[in-house]
């Protein structure tokens, strides 16, 4: 018989396997059976149509079973398919709804899908609402009024605010506001000793500012984990100011010295010019005398009197330069 041929049997088996594979791919019978056993009403036709709409039944059906077992009657197949087709994470949303239901947190399907489509992890948000998490701030440096720098680290305990997840600010805003509050608190202290004695004053002041307004979190507590004493900023600024003042004074003194040197050089130049003019004038005197003698404006007797006057003046100058003590000492030696 033709069916007794092994080749024919092999071909029939291969064709049957291919047909069954295609059938179970487009009609996930075992998923339907699992839903049926779990009490979820869904037909094979609906599963087949999911394949046609490029919606994976292996994502929708397990999520429907999970929601049904948790008692979430508002979660339907159409809602899950619509959320998947808009780019949402179906399994994450269902996990969040189940966790919120068990923790008595008011979270609707519409709110959960909106949070998911906004790019936030709605399941993690529900977990944070149930179990608050701790955020460590980076070191924050601030200066007290006495000029001493303090470096503080804080631990912020936050809880997710489900109703603010859409449009609310994230962790970076919380850290920035807490850092600003720490700087303001330390800066308002008279001395750094006050802050070191009562670090809880920083927490109280920061918490009183309502830093979680408009954020996706609710601040439960702010604890100062560590405070270190930094530089003496006040003394450093005073030293820098003193150095600046010294440099300015030195520059002004150098300017005055340069001006004095310039003035001295100018006076020397003027003195040299005056001496040159005197020498030049003295050189003209003999010419003037000769001219006066030639023209008869001056006689020979007048000339001799002038020469005698010059000689007498030179003798008086010489006598005035003699040291009297030397003269008296010489006379005593002779006696």
List the helices and strands and how they pair.
Elements: H1 6-26, H2 29-38, H3 44-52, H4 57-69, H5 77-85, H6 90-102, H7 109-117, H8 122-130, E1 133-136, E2 140-143, E3 148-160, H9 171-187, H10 192-197, H11 200-207, E4 217-232, H12 233-295, H13 300-320, H14 324-334
Antiparallel strand pairs: 1-3, 2-3, 3-4
Helix pairs in contact: 2-4, 4-6, 6-7, 6-8, 9-11
Describe the structure.
With 335 residues, the protein is α+β, with helices and mostly antiparallel strands. The protein has 14 helices and 4 strands. The chain has helices at residues 6-26, 29-38, 44-52, 57-69, 77-85, 90-102, 109-117, 122-130, 171-187, 192-197, 200-207, 233-295, 300-320, 324-334, and strands at 133-136, 140-143, 148-160, 217-232. Strands 1, 2, 3 and 4 form a 4-stranded antiparallel beta sheet that branches. It is elongated, with a radius of gyration of 54 Å. The relative contact order is 0.05. The mean pLDDT is 81.
Overall residue-averaged pLDDT value: 81
What is the helix content? 55-70%
Strand content: 5-15%
Number of strands: 4
Structural class by secondary-structure content:
alpha+beta
Q: How would you sum up the major sheet?
A: 4 strands, antiparallel
Distance between the termini: 180 Å
Low-confidence stretches: none
Number of H/I helices? 14
Order of helices and strands: HHHHHHHHEEEHHHEHHH
- What is the overall shape? elongated
Cα gyration radius (Å): 54 Å
